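Field log, afternoon session.

UNIT: design team B
ACTIVITY: writing a sequence onto a fixed backbone
BACKBONE:
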């Protein structure tokens, strides 16, 4: 999390990713086998693992895209979706977790969180304006304030 500069609020996703990996790594407790191997009966495949928090480009699957429309969306890799072959991805601009199989990764690049801070500041200003209107809304409408 520190190397990819991921905020602390995504700690739960990091723990989820670590547990996934630990269940697929050998341990002394089960005679140099993995917990996954003991449970399922076969060795796990780890070729799909990526660096947690790296930049990922998810394919946009919206119908009727124009010829010059963006075909990918920048997201952050959060791990593997349990029970499928898909990846868990975070869209930091909308703060949504997405699941997709069509992803390309840049494992040595992290998300620029300064973009997200500007968006959060804009949101904060909008909230302050809404709170102001809730408190002083009647007077603003009647023309007594401002």
């Amino acid at each position: 999390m520190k190397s990819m500069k991921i905020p602390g609020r995504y700690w739960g996703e990091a723990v989820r990713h670590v547990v996934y990996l630990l269940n697929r790594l050998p341990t002394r407790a089960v005679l140099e086998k993995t917990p996954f191997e003991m449970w399922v009966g076969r060795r796990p495949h780890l070729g799909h693992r990526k660096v947690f928090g790296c930049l990922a480009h998810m394919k946009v699957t919206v119908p009727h895209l124009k010829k010059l429309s963006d075909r990918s969306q920048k997201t952050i890799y959060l791990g593997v979706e349990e029970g499928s072959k898909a990846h868990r991805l975070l869209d930091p601009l909308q703060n949504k977790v997405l699941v997709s199989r069509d992803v390309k990764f840049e494992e040595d690049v992290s998300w620029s969180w300064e973009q997200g801070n500007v968006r959060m500041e804009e949101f904060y200003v909008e909230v302050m304006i809404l709170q102001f209107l809730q408190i002083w809304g009647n007077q603003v409408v009647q023309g007594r304030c401002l």
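LOG NOTE: The CA atoms of residues 132 and 140 lie 10 Å apart.
NEXT ACTIVITY: expression trials, pending approval
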